[in-house]
Structure formats: structure tokens, C-alpha cells
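Entry for coenzyme A complex. Fields follow.
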Amino acid sequence: MPYPVNVTAGVASRTLTVRPLRLDELAALAEAIEDEASLAQLENRWREQETGYRTLLVADIDGRPVGTVSLYGRKDGRHLMHLFALEVGAAWRNQGIGTALIDHVIERARRDGHSAVYLEVRGDNRGARRLYHRLGFRRVGPEFTNTWWRFNDDGTRDVVEEVSVRMVKRVKRQ
Ligand SMILES: CC(C)(COP(=O)(O)OP(=O)(O)OC[C@H]1O[C@@H](n2cnc3c(N)ncnc32)[C@H](O)[C@@H]1OP(=O)(O)O)[C@@H](O)C(=O)NCCC(=O)NCCS
């Protein structure tokens, strides 16, 4: 489902679309979000999509990938929709692209009949927490240690542990 939004970047008005990521865009996306995720990381996400553990979306501006988000939720709307791996290229931040990606996931959760969208965010990630809060997410439960694999382009991988919090936004069923 394309999600066209007009974004004003500098003086030029451009068109932002949120849509499924294509395999041939992995390298361009890795370049756009190089501070956040390596190509190896994105390749692993693609494998996870193939095995059904996530759906990968991309924010494109005039055909160029500039950000991404992943979601997981059962099609029958049971349980919560999980939003994760939200990243916007450093050069493209503070223009509403993160908001558009999150809004897209919320709309999809509503369409599929989920009661809520759920996410985990690093406790000290003030910017992301403020953004989620502005969009209606509220913290639930205590801090916990989130553990995940970081895949590096030299073929190695590291375990990352982050003190995180959970946030939930209720979604009105239609
Ligand atoms: C968190 C992240 C995805 C946000 O992406 P983004 O595209 O900058 O998000 P937005 O532009 O929609 O919102 C960011 C701020 O810009 C503001 N903004 C949105 N459109 C704007 C515009 N046209 N002009 C000026 N400011 C604008 C928003 O109000 C928001 O401010 P707020 O947080 O005080 O409410 C991005 O900073 C990022 O990739 N960070 C690193 C990875 C990360 O931390 N991911 C989250 C993991 S849980």
C-alpha cells in the first residue's frame, strides 16, 4: 500500500512513499543509514523476512531509499503488531520521515484488526522516545535488557545488550 506524503526538504518539495523494500535496494539503503545498520545487517533482515519473522518497509524519496522500519503481526489480527528496526538516514532526519514510517505501521495494524502496536526502545534514546510518545505510544512495564545480534560487513557478529523500555499504542479497530 503506497503511502504518499509531501515532504519539504530544504527548498524542494519531494514525494515520500512507504512501501515494501526490494532486494535490489539493500545496498542503497545500507548506504543511506550507514550510521545505524551495515549491509550484512540488512541482508540478515532480508533472510528473516523470507522466513516470516518480519516485513521490511522502506521510505523512498523520489525513488531513493532513505529509511526503513520492520513489522511483525499475524494476519488474523490476533496479538499485537510489533514495530521494530526503525531507522532514517542521518541526512534525512527531522523532516517527518520517521513519523510517516510509524504512521504506516499503525494504519496497517488498524487494517489487520490488531488492538495495539508494540515496540521496544533503548531507555536512553530520548529522541525516539519523544517521537513515539508524540504519536500516542505509552511506556508499559519496567526496564529490561534487550539482546540482539549485530552483523558486521567483515562476516563477524556481536551480541548487543541494551537497557530498553516497552511502549504500546492502542489502535481503534474499524
Ligand atoms: C528516531 C528516528 C527514526 C526518527 O526519524 P525522523 O525521520 O527524524 O523522525 P521525524 O522527522 O518524523 O520526527 C523527528 C522530529 O522531527 C520533527 N519534525 C517532523 N517533521 C519536521 C519538519 N518538516 N521540520 C522540522 N521538524 C520536523 C518531529 O516533530 C520530531 O520531533 P519530536 O520528536 O520532538 O516530536 C531517527 O532519528 C533515527 O533513525 N535515529 C537512529 C535510529 C533510532 O534511534 N531508531 C529508533 C529505534 S527504537
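NOTE: The first strand starts at residue 5 and ends at 9.
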